[in-house]
Structures
1.
Amino acid sequence: MTLATPAPPPARDAVSQSARRRTFAIISHPDAGKTTLTEKFLLYSGAVAEAGAVKARAGRRRARSDWMEMERERGISITSTVLQFRYRGHVLNLLDTPGHRDFSEDTYRVLAAADAAIMVLDVAKGIEEQTRKLFEVCRSRGLPILTFVNKYDRPGRDPLELLDEIEEQISLRPTPVTWPVGIPGDFRGVLDRRTGELVRYVRTVGGSTAAPEEVVEPGRAAREEGGEWERAAETCALLDEVGATFDEASFAAGEASPLFVGSALTNFGVRHLLDAVVDLAPAPGPRADLDGVVHPVGSSFSGQVFKIQANMDPAHRDRVAFVRVCSGRFERGMVVTQSSTGKLFATKYATSVLASERSTIDEAFPGDVVGLVNAGDLRIGDTLYDGDPVAYPPIATFAPELFASVRALSTDRHKQLRRGLDALDEEGVVQLLVDPVGDRTPVLGVVGQMQFEVAAHRLEHEFGAVVELSPTAYRAVRKTDEATAGLLRGEPGSRILARRDGTLLALFESEHWVARLESDHPEWCLERSVV
Ligand code: G4P
C-alpha cells in the first residue's frame, strides 16, 4: 500500500499567504439576498454544516450580548463584521456591510478595506437605490465587481432587459458567465458560457445542504430542454457577437462585471460565484502611500484603520480599531507605529472580530482584518507600521445627505455634549459641522438616518448629554471655497458650514436649486465631490 503524500502546508510568508487571500464585500439593496448568500458561502466552504447558522448566531448574539442596546432592541446589526473562511485552499475574508435597512458611512468605509465586491441584484427588481449608492463608492475606489442576479427560482424580469438596465443606470458593462435557461420562475438551469454546457437547476428542499450539480452536454440539453435551451444558446451567440464576454482587464478596472445567475435560497449558482471569487477576484496587491511610493505585500508590516467601534464590550468600555493588513506579517504582541503621531502601539490584545464574538488572533496577512482593542488614540485612516515608515492616503469622507442641528436638553450639559460630539466626529459616527461665522449650534451630517439615532443614543449613554436633534431642510451639498461661500451667504435656501478640518460645505434645500445656481454662476466653486 502506498500512502499519498499530503500537500505541503502553505508557506507562512506574506507573499505566499496574500496570494491565497481574497478580501471582498457584498453590496446589495436590503432583501436582495445578501444574508442568504453569505450563509450559503459558509455552507459551501464547510465553515458551517447546515445553512441557517448565520441567523442562528445572530439570535444567540442578541440574547447574549448587549454591547449596544439599540442593536438588541431593534434586532439589527449596526456594526460590520468580518467573516473568514476557507475555500479551495484559499482564505476568503468577507467584509459584511451593515445589514439594516438604513445604512451609514460605515457601510461605505468597509469598502475601503475590500479588494472586490459582489453586487447582488433581485431578478424582479434590478438596480435599486442602495445598490446604486454602494456601487458608486466601489467605482470611486476602482473595485472590480462580480454581479449575482438572485432569486431566479421565482418570477422576475427579462434577463436581457436587466443587462440593459445595469449598463444604462450605472455604466457597468455586464459580461454574463452563466446565462439562464428558462425564465425566472420556470428556471431550468444555466448555460455555462465557458463550457457550453447546461448546469441543471435542481431544487433542494429549504437549501440547507449543498445542491447536487448536474452538468449536461449541449446535445442532450437541446433534446431535453428544447425551445428554452435554443433561446438561451441564441442569446449567448448574440452576447458573443456584441463582445459581452468576460475580459480580465476591464473587470480589473471596474468597467465590466462578470455576471452569474442563480438562487441563493436554493443554493443554485453559489458554487459558480465562490469559484469566481477565487479565480477572478484579485488577491491583495501592492499599495501606493501618500508620496506615491508603492509598498509590495511582501514588505514589512503595514495596515490601515478603516473602522472604529466604541464600547463593543460593556464590561470593558473599550474601543476597537479594525485594521486591514496591507503588507507583511502581523504578529500579535508586535509594537507598531501610528503614522499620524509617531506613537508606538502595543498589539497585545489583537482579536479577530466575528460579530461581537472575539477570539485572539496570533498572526494575520495582507487582506486580513485585525481588531485592536484599547485603541484609544487610533483614528480612521491611520496607518500602522513596523519597520519602514509608511502612511497610506486617508479614507475618503462621504458627502452627507441628511443634516440635523443638535443641542443639549439641559443647559448644564454643554461640556458633555461638546466632548461627545468631538468623539463621535473622530470615530466617524457622524460628521460634525459648524457655521464658522454665524449661529454656532452644531449640525450633524450623515448619509443614513440611523447615524442620528446612534449618535443621540451614545451622547446620552456614554457622555451624559440628552440631546434634541432638529432635522433641517437641506438635502444637497457641495464643497466650496471662501470666495464662493461669501457670495452664497446672501442667497436664500443655502447655508455654509465647516468641517473640523476646515473644509467648507455649502448646503442647499434641493439639487434643483444647486443646478440653477450652477448654471447662473458657472464661475462659482461648487464641487460635487466633497472628499
Ligand atoms: P438581505 O440580507 O439582502 O436583506 O436579504 P436576505 O438574505 O435576508 O433575503 C431577503 C428575503 O429574500 C428572505 O426572505 C430570503 O429568504 C429571500 N431570498 C433570498 N434569496 C432568495 C432566492 O434565491 N430565492 C427566493 N425565492 N427568495 C430568496 P424572508 O421571507 O424575508 O425571510 P426568511 O423568512 O426566508 O428568512
2.
Amino acid sequence: MRHLLSIADLSYVDALSILDTAQEMARVSDAPVKKLPTLRGRTIVNLFLEDSTRTRISFEAAAKRLSADVINFSAKGSSVSKGESLKDTAQTLQAMGADAVIIRHPASGAAQWLADSAWMSGSVINAGDGTHEHPTQALLDAFTIRKHLSANSGDLRGLSVAIVGDILHSRVARSNVLLLSMLGAQVIIVAPPTLLPVGVESWPAQVSYDFDSVLPLVDAVMMLRVQQERMSDYFFPTPREYSHYFGLNRDRLGFMKKTAIVMHPGPMNRGLEITAECADSARSVIVEQVTNGVSVRMAVLYLLLAGSPTSPGVAI
Ligand code: NCD
C-alpha cells in the first residue's frame, strides 16, 4: 500500500495490522527516550490547508518519533494565501523531495486528487478532506475502543458503538462507520434527520433519532462536534434544543452501561454536544484518544514508508 486516503483502501487484515503495530509503537511512546531510527533521512510534509490542532501536532510527533525530517506547511503565511493552487504547492513540495505528504484540505477528494496526480511520487496520507474521510482518526478511535473494551486485542466483534451528532458534516463519522463495521462492531448513528446525509440508509450502520433509547445498548458513545463553520443554513432550532435531544449530559451518562466509554475527536463545543462534566468524567477517554493518535500515526507512517526501497532498512 502506498497511500492512505480512505478506510476503503484497507482490508480487514491491513486494519488489524495497523492496530497491532500501533500497540508496539505505544511502547516507544511510553519509554524515556521516545525515538526509533526507522525513518531517518526521510522527509515528511504536513500540508495543512485547513485549521487543525490535534491532528497536525500528532502527525508531527509521530514522524519525529520515527526520526523523519518534518516540514510543516499551512495556508496562513504561505503562498496559498496569495492564491497558489494545490497543484503548484504540491509540485513545490515534490521538488523538495518529500517522501510523504500528509494533507488536510477543505475540499472532499483533495487527498485522492493529490495521490492521482502524475507528478506526486511519494505517499499521500489523508488527514481530513472536507466532509469525506479522516482515516487515521477512525484508526485511533478503533485502537482506543479495542484497548478499553476488547478482551483479546483482536477485532471489535460483539461491541456496539453509537456515533452521535453532526453526521452530515463529519468525515470522522464516515471513516468510523466503515472501519468499526469492518472490524465487526455494530454501529448506531444517532442524529436529528437534518444532520444525516442523503444515502445514509446504505451505510453499514443503524440509524436512530432517539439518543436515550440507544444509550443503554452501547459500549462506546462517540460524540461529534457540531460543525458550525460548515453550516450555511439552520439545521436545528436552537443550541439549547440540540443539547436537550442530542447532547451528552449527566443524566444520560447514568443511562449508559457501567463499562461504556465516552469519546470525542475534538475540538469540543463544551455545553453544546457534551457537558464539561461528561467530557472530564472518569468514563471519558477523550484525552487518551489524543495520546493513542500518535501511536496509530507512527504505525501508519512506518507501514507506508519503512518498507519502501529507499528506506535505510532499520527494523524495529
Ligand atoms: C475532526 C476533524 O477535523 O475532522 N477533528 C480532529 O481531527 N481531531 C473533527 C472536527 O473537526 O470536529
